[in-house]
Design a protein that fits this description.
heterodimer; A: alpha+beta; Uridine Diphospho-n-acetylenolpyruvylglucosamine Reductase, domain 2; Uridine Diphospho-n-acetylenolpyruvylglucosamine Reductase, domain 3; Enolase-like, domain 1; five-stranded antiparallel sheet; four-stranded antiparallel sheet; about 30% helix; B: alpha+beta; Aldehyde Oxidoreductase, domain 3; Aldehyde Oxidoreductase, domain 4; 32 strands; FAD (chain A); flavoprotein (chain A); Periplasmic aromatic aldehyde oxidoreductase, FAD binding subunit YagS (chain A)
């Protein structure tokens, strides 16, 4: 770990102003510490957001739910409003990492954390993500890697809340050196084919100031399920978030998002289409689940993840039906 | 003296929940040892559950572990390690490191300790520095004022490597043209830090073996003939993964070199073994070395020696003339802290139609990296009666960190194979698995071979009742996607006794009672057990006893390995306490106007005859001592009746320890997830001293066994030789949500072998767990899992293969 300066701004403007080249943002500091300890980053300055006013609120107003980026995963998971109308988000936040980490880790940090690919995380491998020429997971130890969109880089996106927020149609408010902007989460993530060195479109000197989740339509329900090898402290082999909008028994609209499947969260559009206008039952959920994993391109050691995804997609659809208001 | 033995009648046999089966035998007890205790039911402190005396210190953080030791002027060390799996070190440039203003000492390692060595060192081109044979091998170390300084200085050491071809994959390494980890045949001499390998074993390439004579004896009978006689034969191949010890406290020391004495605070399972190895490495008399382990955060077999890190820390302390702290970080711990070798086991068992075994043939190989120790045959050799047994074990060297002893070396692996094959045999015979075991688990007089089936017979009986084994359905008969299964497996372990086990007991005039021994409490609760034994002898409570352990300044203590601590050290404590008691009563008898023989110690009082509880409080009686203190030091005597014959250099008692574990699992056939719902564990380990601590250790053994069965797997990249999961994030250890309902039933097993007749439980508690789980998974699904860990990937693959086979 290198020596660095420590800055604690009290406003968003000051924070953005402090983000000179070589500086990094610190919120909960969970992922940051991992990256520092492994020698993957060497910031000259850390800008600690913990003293910035107003970044840790959860409020339902105007267009829907407004979540500050510094809200911890534990608070998000325990909030009754989130548990009610935004159930997928509460369950995603509540099943990430460990109780200790959830007490410190923030939703902003969860969205922006770097992938957990063990080649990326080891200083012994200079992979594409670190400016190298190859993806070591290809032909390597890839049991936990991507089963979709994995040709360039096979790391899976690590964010549980991204999976849920994408299903809930969230958008991000971002402050930076120029004008503040608003980005739908749908277009926030950057595929490795576009730029393998990053996972999202947050620019230099920018910080997320708010996450806005629209009110779910009436007769809508969401669910999130995670399947790890263990329940305590494990990353998902498969995770799925589903938003179901219903018209009686029928599915009016479905959004199905797969996490831990590809380098960025994957919208399973074929599966969504398969559900549209159908009565949601075990058979249609099964058909949609099959559609969700169609075209998967597993590597040597992770075809089993395709099987697990198929089961988890089906179960999450049925859970979302059960959660419908 | 000790050789003048008197014959004493002792009750032996079993006391179990709901009954007992006991008989009286005569044992020759040395004249200076106290008479045997009666059964636990008649004792007041021993055999009763006591929370550990140091519990409050541990949970409040007040206990001082090695990592907590802070000495004035203490420096912080870091180790420079090889990034290459196989290399020749051409040059080490430490000038930049030495020039750093915060640097206080630099030391380059001259010799590698641990692992195998070339039989003929000349087979390798001479090199100034040890050859690098795995990623993470220590090269040098530096000491600096602060941890941050140490990290900066560490990065300034420049090492030039000539990179050599390497192999980390077990099957690749077996091929004749594989890169050689060692260019010639190897030996692994025993050191204070760990057991050696059988010498003069043939070696072809990386494959050392097969050995047919393990430490427990040569082959028996003629397996070919045995298979000819067999009416039914079962054969399967089993694979187990490399498991790292993953103790919560990593390896580490604080070394304090002073001209008059070297003091080393060490996280170790053997204060005495560390001292002895330091004496050897630094040419110091043992009396000039003091090793201290006040509290210890787990070792599981990996922490007996000083290790390369410890040697480096002592050198740095000597050079800097200051104390040096060197604790491994988690990554170093995974790559260089030792591991349980992998195994591939081809096991074939022949039997008659009535179930009696005619032949057992095990061929096994596995890798402990640059060390030997991959043998897995002891379970197959010792569990069941069979006239023809052949075990052929080989070590396969790979460019990976050296193995170390790990909680019942070879046994969880061996049980995983044997207990599944026995279940397969039962199924083919149309017998219940417990009924088959009743048939074949019988004692044989094989010159002290450690079969101990009377206890297991009772354990199967009471365990199956508690577990309700009768509800077990035919394999794979559940309809839904989540299937439930029940399984059972057995444990076998041995009575290892260390005669280097001594205690001093002191009684002071103010009533203070101290017990002192170099023995260390590695988390298993020996502190509390010693207090109980001394309290029992003196009519006190455990809290009245001050236990001071983990310091080589005290009388010699047994290293904690082989589950031998309690069986070795508690008799020494009782013997010493008994002598103190004798002299105490002699001192106070006159003032009470009685003969010493008429006095007894009970309930915190000195009692005269049957005076109904009147008498003098212990403390008031102590005030009458003629001298300030009474002190006695005593050691462990030989087992009454002697040790098992034919095992030179190893004190193994007659009879062993074991247990039976029952497991209930569910298998989600859509996701491959196995969930352990319930474990009923029935164990025996001699006379229980503290049933609460025993239960804790059995819980721990089961949890470590579940973790081994379902999750743990050291993953190396085959192309770089680098461990990809040297952390607790990707190296998966079971957590709170994976803990099943555990019910422990303890047998009291009286053998009349020592003044406490106690034994150990650490190892037998973890031997059968993975096997019991695998048998339960088979019962749930009808599909046999032959490879550990039983991950969703493997479960789904096995289920898919079975479906395909059925079509």
């Amino acid at each position: 770990m290198n020596r660095f300066a420590w800055v604690t701004p009290s406003t968003i403007e000051e924070a953005v102003g402090a983000l000179e080249p070589g500086a990094l943002v610190k919120a909960g500091g969970i992922d940051l510490m991992d990256l520092l300890k492994e020698g993957l980053i060497a910031p000259q300055r850390l800008v600690n957001l913990r003293a910035v006013e107003g970044l840790d609120r959860i409020e339902e107003k105007d267009e829907g739910l407004h979540v500050g980026p510094l809200v911890t995963l534990a608070r998000l998971a325990a909030n009754p409003i989130v548990q009610g109308r935004y159930r997928a988000l509460a369950d995603a936040a509540g099943h990430a990492a460990t109780p200790q980490i959830r007490n410190v880790a923030t939703v902003g940090g969860n969205l922006l954390q770097r992938p957990r690919c063990w080649y990326f995380r080891s200083e012994a491998f200079v992979c594409k993500k670190k400016g190298g020429g190859r993806c070591y997971a290809h032909g390597g130890e890839n049991a936990y890697h991507a089963i979709m969109n994995n040709k360039t880089c096979a790391a899976v996106h690590p964010s549980a809340t991204a999976t849920a927020l994408l299903a809930l149609g969230a958008k991000l408010r971002i402050a930076g050196p120029t004008d503040a902007r608003e980005v739908p989460l749908e277009t926030f993530f950057v595929a490795p084919e576009v730029d393998v060195m990053r996972e999202n479109a947050l620019g230099a000197g920018e910080i997320i100031t708010e996450i806005v989740i629209p009110y779910p339509p009436s007769e809508a329900g969401s669910a999130y399920l995670k399947q790890g090898e263990k329940e305590s402290f494990d990353w998902p082999l498969a995770e799925v978030a589903v938003l179901l909008e219903r018209d009686g028994n029928r599915c009016k609209r479905a959004i199905i998002v797969l996490g831990a499947a590809g380098p960025v969260p994957v919208r399973a559009r074929t599966a969504e289409a398969a559900l549209a206008d159908k009565v949601i039952d075990d058979a249609t959920a099964r058909a949609a689940a099959k559609a969700a994993v169609q075209g998967a391109t597993p590597l040597e050691q992770n075809a089993y993840k395709v099987t697990i995804f198929e089961a988890i997609v089906r179960r999450t659809i049925l859970a979302a039906r059960g959660n419908t208001a | 003296m000790a050789d003048e033995n008197g014959k004493v009648a002792v009750q032996t046999g079993l006391v179990f929940p709901g009954g007992s089966s006991l008989s009286e035998v005569e044992r020759a007890v040395p004249s200076d040892e106290p008479p045997p205790w009666p059964l636990n039911a008649e004792l007041s402190v021993v055999g009763k559950p006591f929370p550990r005396l140091d519990g409050p210190l541990k949970v409040t953080g007040a206990a001082t572990y090695t990592a907590d030791v802070r000495l004035p002027g203490m420096l912080h060390a870091r180790v420079i390690r090889s990034p290459h799996p196989h290399a020749r070190v051409k040059n080490i440039d430490v000038t930049a490191a030495e020039r750093h203003p915060a640097a206080r000492a630099v030391h380059v390692l001259e010799h590698m300790r641990g692992g195998a060595k070339l039989r003929d060192p000349k087979q390798e081109t001479p090199s100034k520095f040890p050859i690098v044979r795995y990623v993470g091998q220590p090269i040098a170390a530096i000491a600096a004022a602060t941890p941050a300084d140490a990290e900066e200085v560490m990065r300034l050491v420049k090492v030039d490597y000539e990179v050599l071809p390497f192999v980390v994959d077990l099957e690749e390494a077996r091929k004749p043209d594989a890169p050689r980890v060692f260019p010639g045949a190897t030996e692994q001499p025993a050191t204070a830090g760990g057991g050696g390998a059988v010498p003069n074993v043939p070696q072809q390439g990386n494959v050392r073996g097969p050995t047919k004579t393990g430490p427990l004896g040569p082959p028996r009978g003629d397996v070919e003939k045995g298979f000819e006689e067999a009416e039914i034969t079962v054969e399967n191949t089993f694979r187990t993964a490399v498991q790292t010890h993953s103790a919560l406290e990593t390896h580490g020391v604080v070394a304090d070199w002073k001209p008059e004495v070297l003091t080393v605070y060490a996280s170790t399972q053997g204060t005495s073994t560390v001292r002895d190895e330091l004496a050897e490495v630094f040419g110091l008399p043992k009396g000039k070395i003091r090793v201290v382990t006040e509290f210890m955060g787990g070792g599981f077999g990996s922490k007996f020696g000083i290790g390369n890190f410890g040697v480096l820390a002592v050198h740095l302390s000597k050079k800097a003339s200051a104390p040096v702290r060197l604790m491994l970080d988690r990554k170093e711990e995974h790559v260089n802290g030792g591991n349980r070798p992998s195994s591939v086991q081809r096991l074939r068992v022949g039997a008659k139609k009535d179930g009696s075994l005619t032949a057992i043939h095990l061929t096994s190989w596995g890798t402990g990296g640059t060390a030997t120790g991959a043998g897995a045959g002891n379970v197959a050799k010792n569990m069941y009666a069979c006239p023809n047994i052949l075990i052929e074990e080989s070590d396969v060297f790979t460019n990976a960190g050296p193995a170390a002893a790990f909680r019942a070396p070879g046994h969880p692996q061996g049980a995983f194979a044997l207990e599944q094959v026995i279940d397969e045999l039962a199924e083919k015979l149309g017998m219940d698995p417990l009924a088959l075991r009743d048939k074949i688990d019988i004692d044989e007089d094989l010159g002290g071979r450690n079969v101990d089936s009377a206890a297991r017979r009772m354990e199967r009986k009471i365990g199956s009742q508690k577990f309700d084994w009768a509800r077990r359905k035919p394999a794979g008969s559940d309809r839904g996607p989540v299937k439930r299964g029940l399984g059972v497996a057995q444990s076998i372990w041995y009575r290892f006794i260390d005669l280097d086990a001594s205690c001093e007991v002191r009684l002071l005039r103010d009533g203070t009672v101290e017990v002192l021994s170099a023995v260390q409490d590695i988390g298993t609760g020996i502190r509390t057990a010693l207090a109980q034994v001394v309290a029992e002898e003196l009519g006190l409570q455990p809290k009245d006893i001050t236990v001071r352990v983990g310091d080589t300044a005290f009388p010699a203590g047994v290293p904690s390995g082989g589950s031998r601590t309690t069986g070795s050290i508690t008799p020494a404590a009782r013997n010493a306490a008994h002598e103190v008691r004798r002299r105490f009563l002699a001192d106070v008898a006159a003032s009470m106007g009685a003969r010493p023989e008429a006095l007894s110690l009970k309930g915190g009082k000195v009692l005269l005859g049957d005076d109904g509880g009147r008498g003098i409080p212990f403390r008031s009686a102590a005030a009458k001592l003629k001298t300030e203190q009474i002190t006695a030091s005593r050691s462990r005597a030989h087992d009454y009746g002697g040790f098992a014959p034919g095992r030179p250099g190893m004190n193994m008692g007659i009879g062993g320890f074991g247990g039976v574990q029952f497991a209930e699992v569910t298998v989600d056939t859509e996701t491959g997830i196995i969930k352990v719902e319930r474990v009923v564990a029935v164990h025996d380990c001699g006379r229980p001293i503290n049933p609460l601590a025993l239960e804790s250790q059995i819980n721990g053994g089961i949890l470590q066994g579940i973790s081994y069965a379902l999750y743990e797997n050291r993953v190396l990249d085959r192309r770089a030789g680098v461990q990809l999961n040297p952390n607790f994030e990707q190296y998966k250890v079971l957590g709170a949500r994976e803990v099943p309902a555990i019910e422990v039933l303890l047998l009291e097993e009286y053998q009349g072998r020592s003044s406490t007749d106690a034994g150990g439980i650490g190892e037998p508690a973890t031997v059968p767990t993975a096997a019991a789980l695998a048998n339960a998974v088979y019962n749930a699904t009808g599909v046999r899992m032959t490879e550990l860990p039983m991950t969703p990937a493997r479960v789904l693959t096995a289920l898919a293969a079975a479906r395909k086979g059925a079509q």
